[in-house]
């Protein structure tokens, strides 16, 4: 946590630091460095992300990003978070947008892959932050449990497991992904 003497960082500071090899998120102006979390996490991210891209790109529905893109959630003090995967509709971010820097609009869907080192309270806080930022669907992926939890604003969370199929509902109509495709090699 920042002390009275420490300077809070801005999103621009974080972007500059990333060019120097520093990887992390900015939480209310404080740098929280992140580390690689392993091959299971990476495989799930690629599988899930590929399924989203396969659905979104040919239909020109929007953009799918990975964690390196970063989302500017708050200013003064700045907060930049890294969703593992996010979908942003063409309505929120035009397909021809070539601006650099962090995403400054709320994605419609955020996928967070929960690592063994993640504490439940941190996962919950991040999900609540995404929903407060205007995200319409937050999908928490639990590899160890082979389950996902889907959060929507104003609705109870829904847990899916086994042979269930995750669908995009009214947020991303027509998108569906069997859980076995996420977890089976």
How are the elements arranged and paired?
Layout: H1 11-18, E1 24-27, E2 30-33, H2 39-56, E3 62-66, E4 71-74, E5 79-81, E6 85-89, E7 109-113, H3 120-132, E8 137-142, E9 147-151, E10 158-161, E11 165-167, E12 176-178, H4 179-183
Parallel strand pairs: 7-8
Antiparallel strand pairs: 1-2, 3-6, 4-5, 6-7, 8-9, 9-10, 11-12
Note down, in words, how this protein is organized.
The chain is an alpha+beta fold. It has a single domain, classed as tt1808, chain A (Alpha-Beta Complex). Helices cover 24% and strands 28% of the residues. The protein contains four helices and twelve strands, in the order αββαβββββαβββββα. Strands 3-6-7-8-9-10 form a six-stranded mixed sheet, with helices on both faces. A two-stranded antiparallel ribbon has the order 1-2. The chain has a two-stranded antiparallel sheet with strand order 4-5. The protein is globular and about 50 Å long. The model has no long low-confidence stretch (mean pLDDT 92).
| CATH homologous superfamily (4th level) name | tt1808, chain A
| Helix content estimate | 10-25%
Order of helices and strands: HEEHEEEEEHEEEEEH
Gyration radius (Cα, Å) is: 16 Å
In percent, how much strand structure appears in the residues? 25-35%
- Looking at the overall shape, the CATH architecture is Alpha-Beta Complex
N-to-C CA distance: 40 Å
Any idea of the CATH topology? tt1808, chain A
């Amino acid at each position: 946590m920042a002390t009275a003497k420490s300077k809070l960082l801005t999103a621009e500071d974080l972007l500059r630091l990333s060019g120097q090899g520093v990887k992390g998120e900015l939480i209310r102006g404080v740098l929280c460095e992140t580390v690689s979390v392993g091959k299971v996490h990476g495989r799930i991210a690629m599988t899930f992300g590929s399924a989203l891209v396969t659905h979104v790109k040919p239909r020109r529905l929007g953009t799918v990003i990975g964690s390196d893109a970063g989302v500017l959630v708050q200013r003064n003090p700045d907060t930049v978070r890294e969703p593992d995967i996010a979908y942003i509709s063409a309505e929120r971010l035009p397909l021809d947008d070539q601006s650099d820097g962090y995403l400054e609009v709320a994605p419609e869907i955020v996928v967070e892959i929960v690592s063994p080192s993640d504490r439940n309270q941190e996962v919950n806080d991040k999900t609540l932050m995404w929903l407060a930022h205007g995200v319409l669907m937050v999908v928490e992926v639990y590899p160890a449990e082979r389950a996902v939890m889907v959060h929507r604003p104003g609705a109870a969370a829904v847990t899916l497991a086994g042979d269930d199929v995750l669908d995009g509902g009214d947020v991303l109509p027509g998108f569906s992904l069997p859980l076995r495709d996420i977890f089976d090699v």
